[in-house]
Amino acid sequence: MTAGFARRLELMTLGCTALLVAGAAVASAAVGAGRTDRLDGAPYYKSYQKNVPDGAVVTPPVRLDPSADDAFGDLGRPQSLRLLLEALNRHLATLEWARPHDIELPEDGAPQVYVGSADGEHAPAAAAMEMDGLDERAPMIIHLQFPSKAWRQAAGTVLADQGAQGAVVLTLGFSEFPKSYKGTFRKRVVLGTGYETDIRFLSPELEPVHVLYVTGALVDLEGKVIRAGAEGILSEDAPFWAQSIGAQKEIDTDMVLRLLEEERREDLPGHPLTWQVALENLLAQLLGEPSRVIQ
Fold it and tell me: Quick one: which H or E segment has residue 230?
């Protein structure tokens, strides 16, 4: 039994359990309710409200997903991720059109976005309900954990004090994306807006690929999520022999460090750094600035 298949069974079991307790979960006021939707393909975004803020929308610093530390606790990778986080925020500070701001929004109860394979390691249990017997592989989904009432109230107060009508909440973290065919004899993983990378052809089709990405949620003055999505930065696929025994190669410290200055979008004019393109495209997509999308 491969790791992906075992994970799929686990999620389906959890999904059935979630159905039985859904009423109680939705009634909970301490944590915002969640919503899961299928994605037809890239770019990976979902709109939840029609009314967009009619005033200034600010962008606080990117935060690191707490689960990123949990995954790499003793291997030095949290430090490399923080170096990338610092680089993202330095670049963000140069994007005047995104209105970067040093305001601190609460962490507890903040909106959380998952984009990835429905049977990925980081997928929420609710994602299992998006899978059915007609799927050849686990579908790509977006799961939004809506912000809690306390977070919405606190964020609204902070934004109002700054004269802002909304904010873009950004997070650096990990996911797993599904593979797809590119023609007859090639495989790929589509990481985001106009961006894909090749995958070894012998790589097991049903096993997802480990991905480092940035997620974001545009919220209004009331803290309600208007739009959410993600852009992949880097992917890593395990060799065939490793996946055949259920192993999955993950993004390591060296890969993140190389990413800081060496990994570039060779398909784009000027060959910009991959992580810079991901950040700018995420902001442009969330803020409704199509002319600023790089592809």
Answer: strand 225-236
User: Rounded CA gap, 17 and 22, in Å?
Assistant: 9
Question: Is the bond into 78 cis (omega within 30 degrees of 0)?
Answer: no
Whole-angstrom distance, CA of residue 214 vs CA of residue 68: 12
Element (H or E) spanning 41, and its range? none
Look up the pTM and report it. Answer: 0.84
251: Cβ contacts below 8 Å, ≥ 6 apart: 174, 210, 211, 212, 234, 235, 236
Containing structural domain, residue 73: 3-23+32-292
Question: 283 Cβ partners below 8 Å, 6+ apart?
Answer: 59, 95, 98, 168, 216, 289, 292
Are β-strands 209-220 and 225-236 bridged in parallel, bridged antiparallel, or unpaired?
Answer: antiparallel
- Pick the closest to residue 207 from 230, 231, 175, 177 (CA basis): 177
Per-residue pLDDT of 22-44, as tens digits, reads 433 333 333 458 999 999 999 99
Number of neighbours of residue 251 by Cβ within 10 angstroms: 21
Identity of the residue numbered 171: T
Instruction: Tell me how many domains the chain contains.
Output: 1
Beta bridge partners of 108: none
Q: How many CB atoms lie within 10 A of CB 4?
A: 24
Kindly tell me the sign of the dihedral angle through the C-alpha atoms of 64, 238, 271, 285.
Answer: negative
| Rounded Cα–Cα distance for residues 227 and 229 (Å) | 7
Query: What percent of the chain is modeled with pLDDT above 90?
Result: 57
77 in Cβ contact with 84 (< 8 Å): no
